Amino acid sequence: MAMWNPWRGCKRCSDGCKYCYIHKGDSKRNIDTTNIVRTKDFYKPIEKLNNGSYKIKSGIVYVCFSSDFLIEEADPWRDECFQMMKERSDLTFLFLTKRIDRFLKCIPKDWNDGYDNVVVCCTVENQTNADTRLSIFKDLPIQHKCITAQPLLENINIEKYLDDIELVVVGGESDKDAREFDYDWALNIREQCIRKKVNFEFRQCGTYFIKDSKKYTLPTKELCKQAKLANIDYHVSSIGNDK
């Protein structure tokens, strides 16, 4: 898998953004996160070696993890990114967004029912935002849809939105300022996914983790490992086009 950040910088727009890792990291480096700028990697998917082959080999490419792919400030650049995605049909591009309400304003003219090699993940963190965003997401013309509930801040019910969803990812919040994460929330979403036959992944515990009414404080480096050890992932089929 590869990472492609055509631009960087973001603006808080949601409850889940409060302790965003992007803002946190930029603060340590005295960088203004609200300044959205193109990066030197803008053309990374179509860069070639001296022999004419692409530098990025076939596989999954995680897009814009230093921003939001649908952020308004990137509107002038996005069409060119979509054309690069179309050119690299051998790659599967995956991006997350909290701005799913902007989707129809952002897609290219030739999008139609969606590019088959693009996976769109709608991010939710509480019931209010789940209802708002997923009620939009469910009707959008997208070939491959995923839901990311991370950081999950409360118990939520998303079962009625799971038709045509390929994967739901759940995780808690990390670092010293993190809000508590209850393991039962992950189990609840897992049961919803099983009933709807949707892939489920428990991506990470929260720093302040509750299980069986007991509270634990976990080091950041252990959050993904402990989630994996829980062994509650549920897989039905492959996600997108794993080329």
Structural features:
single chain, 243 residues, alpha/beta, 7-stranded parallel sheet, 3-stranded mixed sheet
Description:
The strands form 3 sheets. The chain has a 7-stranded parallel sheet with strand order 1-4-5-6-7-8-10. The protein has a 3-stranded mixed sheet with strand order 9-11-12. A two-stranded antiparallel ribbon has the order 2-3. Helices cover 24% and strands 22% of the residues. The protein contains 6 helices and 12 strands. With 243 residues, the protein is an alpha/beta fold.
Query: SS-based structural class?
Result: alpha/beta
* Molecular shape: globular
Helix segment tally: 6
The major β-sheet equals: 7 strands, parallel
Q: What would you report as the Rg, rounded to the nearest angstrom?
A: 18 Å
Q: Biggest sheet: strands side by side, in what order? A: 1-4-5-6-7-8-10
Topology order in helix (H) and strand (E) letters: EEHEEHEHEHEEEHEEEH
What fraction, in percent, of the residue positions are helical? Answer: 10-25%
Distance between the termini: 11 Å
Beta-strand level of the residues, as a percent range? 15-25%
* Mean pLDDT, all residues: 95
Q: Any low-confidence stretches, pLDDT <50, length ≥5?
A: none
Number of strands: 12
